[in-house]
Write a structure and sequence with these properties.
It holds the Pfam family sCache_3_2. Its main location: membrane. Helix content is about 40%, strand content about 25%. By secondary structure, it is α+β, with helices and mostly antiparallel strands. The strands form six sheets. It has a six-stranded antiparallel beta sheet with strand order 12-11-10-15-14-13, sandwiched between helices. Strands 17, 18, 19, 20, 23 and 24 form a six-stranded mixed beta sheet that branches. Helix 9 packs antiparallel against helix 10 (about 380-390).
Length: about 900
């Protein structure tokens, strides 16, 4: 290419100086002859340089290999000397008799002959035996015996092997020092063996002639091969004939002028040396432009400055006439060539226009794709509307507002004609005078939003300042909007089937062009995709609200009054959906209280409804005063029947499953009886603050059937806190239940003394940051019914003892200040004690409890339960229990392992 720069353009027939230009074929012939004369010398010169360079490289490689081999041999010899020294020293140190010789009065007499014999046999230069102070006993030179050993013996005295290179008494050497260990591993002496450097290097010196011979042979072979390659290269260069060179030149010339890209070559002085046909057409160069200065070609100032500067340019776009040219320019002297530059020109006018339209289309497709994956990520109506507004700003509009009917926000179907509420707003700035979020809006009939809601079609207002229908909506505010710079509007209804949920407004301010028809179509597509997500969120909101309402209605709204426990509770729903967690506090007879917590498998309306059925069942079963294991057995049968009723005919799989924990606390005995069915164990906080998880037998979940439930009886001191919870508190997809239980232990350890503080500490911990399931939590602090509020008597099996019993009860009531209850209490106890003596078994006991009510309890050893009868006028009996029922607030029977208890409560 450089050789062609001085050639005039083929189509120019006159030179600037008036002389006739040479014809193209003459110039080509002269160039071919000139190249032919220079080819041999140039090729031979290049071949010679290649030959010398290869020889130098081969020589350097051979020398490097020889040096590396020599160094490697010396290193290997030194390493071999170290290994041999260690082996010889260890062998002599461990030889039989060495330790015994060191203990004699003259070790040298015994060890010197042995050391010299071993030295000659092992081909080392010395073997020295010394005591622990380093005094030699042996040495190849007898005059060195008795003198201090030269070397480091401290590591050997510590029981280690030492190898080192030092200058000893016989010169530079490699030596090893090993310990001689006596019985018990104690070091009793040292042995050193070594080889002098002269012997170490002898091996390398012996191999050096062989290495030099091999290196010389390699150098000769490599030089011969290099000479052959250079000769072949020279031969190939001379083999290229004139015809082939001419053909290469003509092809080059044809390509240069036929290519659809302009090529310009400028010399270092700023003269135009070459311009092909495409460059002449793109720049409108004069016919006689070649050879002239670039400054004289009449180009515009920007292009002239670029061509004259010879600077590097990459895909720079310059306007020349009515064209946009992509310009690339590189200097020609970067690799040692002549000064100047080569410039290529490409017409990108049409390509730029097509690229712009393609870029717009691609951006719109990307935005639609982002709308598909970015709108509707949550089932929240407001958040979905915000996602639409955030997506469209600033990619499509400068401001976006979303207005929805209030009914849509609550999950209901919208009612046309009602007010809308601004639900979402997003903009490039926050100070736009548009209606704020939360504002209720009633659009006038002439407003584009009202027309859009009425017809269901999108409306575009290209110039808001000239839109009287929009200006009449709120004259003061609309004037502020126009003055702010918002000049164009697209309003699109949010349609989901036959429902119109609201309207979306796209506002433009920064871009001066108004919205056009293509942008209207894009806005409709965006809103159509968002409308589906908003309607899904609306439906979910309605169903979720129904489920939450059902669930809340099934949970206890307030705790019953009782004095046995101080109770606090929390219910935390999951982030999505409703579950079947429930809890209850149930007062029982005898001042006892039952605590129950359970969890139905699954989420949604079905789980909430099943939870309500189970809670009602537990409430009814608790009225029977059953032990926890029996109650769970009945509940298990109920869940099994629910499964059978709700399992489809074509499927044998159960649709219900639940877990439950039931506990009964007695403030008189301070004992708590607990049973659980597949539920997490309770936590217990002792009065001193220690936390434990009592060992309560884990029964199967409810509904499996066939397996019994077991109970555990806990002795609780007054002030203890019993913590019941559902598995949503301790189980999570990202952590194991053991980790959750340990986290719960940590939270309970840091909790305060009251149940409220305990609930707060648990929910403030990391356990409830993002619950994936519902959480039900109960914390109950135990109280004791004092001995001064309890009275108990043993009753003989004699009807005459009833009178004494009445007298004792009367005295106790007088002591408690309850004289007004004496008459009714005597009647109740007379009937209950008489029945126990007449129909029951021994022993018979009477107990009075003064709690929130006066509780009368009669114990006997029979399991026969009395039944309330309604006696006729002529019957002589059957009215006793009727009187008890009329005189008391509640009465009933509960069974114990030793019999039964008939109880009655009277209001204080």
């Amino acid at each position: 290419m450089v050789r062609l720069t001085g050639r005039p353009r083929a189509r120019s027939t006159h030179r600037p100086d008036g002389l006739r230009a040479q014809r193209p074929y003459d110039r080509a012939r002269r160039a071919r002859e000139h190249r032919h004369r220079r080819t041999g010398l140039a090729d031979r010169s290049v071949a010679g340089q290649v030959f010398m360079l290869q020889v130098v490289i081969v020589l350097l490689l051979v020398v490097s290999a020889v040096v590396a081999q020599v160094l490697q041999v010396r290193h290997d010899s030194t390493q071999e000397a170290r290994n041999r020294s260690v082996a010889v020293a260890e062998t002599f140190a461990n030889a039989p008799g060495t330790v015994a010789a060191l203990k004699t009065a003259n070790p040298t007499a015994i060890l010197q002959p042995s050391a010299e014999a071993a030295r000659k046999t092992s081909k080392v230069d010395f073997i020295v035996v010394m005591n622990t102070d380093g005094i030699r006993y042996t040495h190849p030179k007898p005059d060195r015996i008795g003198k201090k050993f030269v070397g480091d013996i401290a590591p050997a005295l510590a029981g280690h092997v030492v190898t080192e290179e030092i200058i000893g008494t016989i010169g530079p050497l490699v030596q090893a020092v090993v310990p001689v260990k006596g019985p018990g591993g104690k070091v009793v002496g040292l042995v050193s063996a070594g080889v002098t450097k002269a012997n170490v290097g002898g091996t390398a010196d012996q191999q050096l002639p062989l290495l030099l011979i091999a290196a010389g042979a390699a150098l000769i072979l490599a030089t011969g091969g290099t000479a052959l390659v250079s000769r072949r290269l020279q031969h190939q260069t001379h083999g290229l004939g004139p015809h082939e060179m001419t053909r290469m030149y003509e092809h080059h010339d044809a390509v240069l002028h036929a290519v659809r890209e302009g090529v310009i070559i400028v010399s270092g002085e700023g003269r135009l040396l070459l311009a092909n046909d495409e460059a002449r057409q793109l720049l409108d160069l004069p016919e006689n432009g070649e050879g002239r200065l670039v400054l004289d070609l009449g180009l515009d100032a920007e292009m002239t400055a670029l061509l004259a500067s010879a600077r590097v340019a990459t895909d720079e776009v310059h306007r020349v006439g009515g064209r946009l040219l992509a310009v690339n320019q590189r200097p020609t002297d970067l690799e040692g060539g002549p000064p100047g530059s080569v410039t290529t020109l490409r017409d990108s006018t049409e390509l730029r226009a097509l690229s712009g339209r393609a870029e717009v289309a691609r951006e719109r497709l990307n935005m639609l794709y982002d709308a598909g994956v970015g709108i509707g990520t949550s089932l929240d109506v407001t958040r979905t509307a915000e996602e639409l507004a955030e997506l469209a700003v600033p990619r499509f509009a400068d401001f976006v507002t979303v207005d929805l009917y209030d009914a849509v926000l609550s999950g209901e179907e919208p009612q046309p004609g009602t007010e809308l509420r601004r639900t979402a707003y997003s903009g490039v700035r926050d100070d736009a005078p548009l209606y704020p979020v939360g504002k209720q809006i009633q659009f006038v009939e002439s407003a584009p939003q009202a027309r859009s809601l009425d017809t269901g079609d999108a409306v575009v207002e290209p110039r808001l300042g000239e839109a009287p229908g929009w200006l009449t909506q709120d004259p003061e505010r609309t004037a502020q909007v126009v003055e702010y710079g918002i000049h164009s509007l697209i309003t699109v209804p949010l349609r989901a089937g036959a429902l119109i949920l609201g309207v979306v407004n796209f506002w433009r301010s920064d871009k001066p062009e108004p919205f056009d028809s293509e942008e209207l179509a894009l806005a409709e597509e965006l809103v159509a995709r968002a409308a589906v997500s908003i309607d899904n969120s609306r439906r979910y909101t309605r169903e979720h609200g129904m489920a939450v309402t059902l669930q809340r209605s099934l949970l206890p709204r307030r705790l019953p009054e009782q004095t046995a426990l101080d109770v606090a509770y929390r219910y935390l729903p999951a982030k999505a959906g409703v579950g079947g967690d429930w809890f209850d506090v149930l007062p029982l007879s005898g001042a006892r209280v039952a605590l129950v917590v359970g969890d139905v498998v699954g989420h949604g309306l079905h789980a909430a409804a099943t939870m309500g059925r189970l809670r009602t069942a537990v409430l009814n079963f608790s009225a029977l005063d059953l032990p926890p294991d029996e109650l769970l057995g009945l509940l298990d049968e109920l869940v099994g029947r629910i499964d059978q009723d709700e399992t489809p005919d074509d499927s044998g799989a159960a649709v219900t499953g639940a877990t439950c924990l039931y506990a009964i606390y007695d403030p008189v005995t301070l004992r708590c009886t607990v049973a659980r069915a597949g539920h997490p164990p309770p936590a217990l906080i002792r009065p001193d603050g220690t936390v434990e998880f009592p060992d309560v037998p884990a029964g199967p979940p409810l509904g499996l059937g066939g397996l019994p439930f077991e109970t555990a009886e806990l002795k609780l001191d007054e002030g203890s806190r019993l913590v019941l919870y559902t598995d949503g508190l301790v189980e999570d997809r990202e952590r194991d239940i053991d980790v959750g239980l340990e986290m719960l232990r940590t939270a309970l350890t840091r909790a305060g003394d009251s149940p409220e503080d305990t609930c707060r500490a648990v929910l403030d911990s990391e356990l409830s940051v993002r619950p994936s399931d519902d959480i039900a939590l109960i914390v109950a602090r135990t109280r004791a019914l004092g001995a001064d509020r309890i009275a108990e008597w043993r009753v003989p099996s004699d009807p005459s003892a009833v009178a004494d019993m009445r007298a004792s009860v009367t005295r106790q009531l007088t002591h408690w200040g309850l004289d007004e209850l004496t008459f009714t209490t005597e009647l109740i106890l007379s009937e209950l004690v008489t029945n126990a003596i007449r129909y029951g078994n021994d022993p018979v006991r009477v107990r009075l409890l003064r709690d929130r009510t006066l509780i009368c309890e009669v114990y006997d050893g029979s399991t026969t339960s009395p039944h309330l009868r309604y006696a006729a006028m002529t019957d002589e009996g059957g009215r006793g229990l009727f009187l008890v029922a009329q005189l008391s607030e509640r009465w009933g029977t509960r069974y114990t392992p030793a019999g039964k208890v008939i109880w009655a409560e009277q209001a204080l």
